[in-house]
Amino acid sequence: MAKNVNVMALLGLLALAAVLGMASGAGGHDYAVALKKSILYFEAQRSGVLPPNQRVTWRENSGLFDGKANGVDLVGGYYDAGDNVKFGLPMAFTVTMMSWGILEYGKQMASAGELRNAMDAVKWGTDYFIKAHPEPDVLYGEVGDGDTDHSCWQRPEDMSTSRQAFRIDPQNPGSDLAGETAAAMAAASLVFRSAYPGYANLLLEHAKQLFAFADKYRGKYDASIPVARNYYGSFSGYGDELLWAAAWLYEATEEGCYLEYLARNGDALGGTGWSINQFGWDVKYPGVQVLAAKFLLQGRAGAHAAALRRYAQNAEFFVCSCVGKGGPGNVPRTPGGMMYHQRWNNLQFVTSASFLLTVYADYATKLAGRGGGGAVRCPGGAARPYEILAFVRSQVNYILGDNPRGTSYMVGYGGNFPRQVHHRGASIVSFRKNPSFVSCQEGYASWYPRQDGNPNVLEGAIVGGPDEYDDFADERNNYQQTEAATYNTAPLLGVLARLAGACGTGFEEYQLPPVADANRTSSPPPPASRRRRHKMPSSSPIEIEQNVTRTWAARAQTYSRYAVTVTNRSSRKTVRELHLGVAELRGRLWGLDEARYGYVPPKWRQALRPGESLRFVYVQPAGSPANVWVTGYKLV
């Protein structure tokens, strides 16, 4: 065993030595410049009274009466994307991810001269959250509404749309919104702990109150603030945010009650049941699982090590799926190598996954340095830290221009970047140049359809990005691809800082495995069989069995009908909110409903009691069955 460890260490060192001096990036990328621009982007998204040191000079003050109609001061915060609404859930996730990036890679940010700017970006968000949380059990979660805002094309300085504020409280709960805001303030308290301890204590007090509020009065925020549902609906529910908040409060306080909450509620809230390859403003499970793995690796799990290991197993699933070694749950890739989930704003998932992969690989590297294995055990073979980091670099380089189009999807970086970003403020002449009022309809008539590039460059913004074939249309009305969002850029701050300070500390040259076909990295399908049992991890109570029940020929093609049985093998706990993944499906499926995160049972079948089974069928050309696996569940 010792010889094997030494050999692996030697291979890592050889790969490391191949790329010393990488601070300016492979392929000529200047990650320090990209980092600077990415932080600058948040200044363009500011709402409220802009500070004297504002560097994005085409913006002016806006939203100066936010909250007044509700009797509360809600001036400040961030606009989420290309509109003028302040949505609380994605804003809080943005602040959490910026804070996490600073906590992991603040030294690299300082070396690049950007730590102060990054901290200012976090504080702009947390100052607003303090205002939005005027009472322990009250949190304002939105200012403005998407429906009226989207009927206008106006600079934020000219806003004439509704600025009504919406809140959650004990009668109208929102555990997901309150939980994410608690996570943001807890993480940010660590950012300011040394420099501003009084401010850090204030943030921590708000975080504790918000978590208690979220846990005591449970419910989805989009049921209480229905105007948010069509824009930032809570598809994953609130279980992930409660666990996410508890994890960050444990990180910030070291108080055992939060670790106990994480361990005790892993089954009921989905932390140990969800194994998913997406991480973003809605679904936080992979983030919780990576934090739990961190606690384990750092020896901070205490008596809860067994529970946290179950979280860590799902963190490994996320890593394996992203790097293409996870089997049927692998994240598809485009022909150019980009991770691909969906056409609308796909890059949000690329940047968030890149951050989780980076921190996980760095945690594993530290473990290896203490004599641990370091590599992640994947169905498709071990994923070593330097391989994971090399894959991350490939994704970042794709965003910065190493792609089939040669387009940088970071606005303002490189010579070929999107010029018609779907963004109200950037697409209309600067208020400072021409303060004449631009009405709703004038904006749509005169500025929205212009064929020229935007008059203001939204530097550092990460747009939605290309489709599954690496195609991209730089058109202002193509909002699915050309709109940028704060949560696209926020996770990238830490990754870019890590890259800028790499100098051969792990982002080494590595030959990535070839893509399996034109646009997907999947394991080859298993051999055909008439009976197939899918074994979940030993800790899972769910068993999946497939059987061929009929085969027939039609039009020179042989078809098979497969019956799939999903059984809850737990002796005493009920499975709820079951989500299934189905891949390699080449025909029709009956008995499940399609959802955002895979397939779910019909609405009339909300639970599987101990020993109960769910059945569904599908038909496809004979040869090999579809791959069916569990994406997530709660065990109560």
From TrEMBL:
GO terms for biological process: cellulose catabolic process. Its EC number is 3.2.1.4. Keywords: Carbohydrate metabolism, Cellulose degradation, Glycoprotein, Glycosidase, Hydrolase, Polysaccharide degradation, Secreted, Signal. Residues 514-542 are annotated as: Disordered. PROSITE patterns: GH9_2 (PS00592). GO terms for cellular component: extracellular region. The keyword Nucleus does not apply. It catalyses: Endohydrolysis of (1->4)-beta-D-glucosidic linkages in cellulose, lichenin and cereal beta-D-glucans. It holds the Pfam family CBM49. Gene3D superfamilies: 1.50.10.10. Residues 1-25 form the signal peptide. InterPro entries: 6-hairpin_glycosidase_sf, 6hp_glycosidase-like_sf, CBM_49, Glyco_hydro_9, Glyco_hydro_9_His_AS. Residues 542-623 form the Carbohydrate binding domain. It is found in: Secreted. The active site is at H422. It is an enzyme of class 3 (hydrolase). GO terms for molecular function: cellulase activity. Belongs to the glycosyl hydrolase 9 (cellulase E) family. This is Endoglucanase. It comes from Urochloa decumbens.
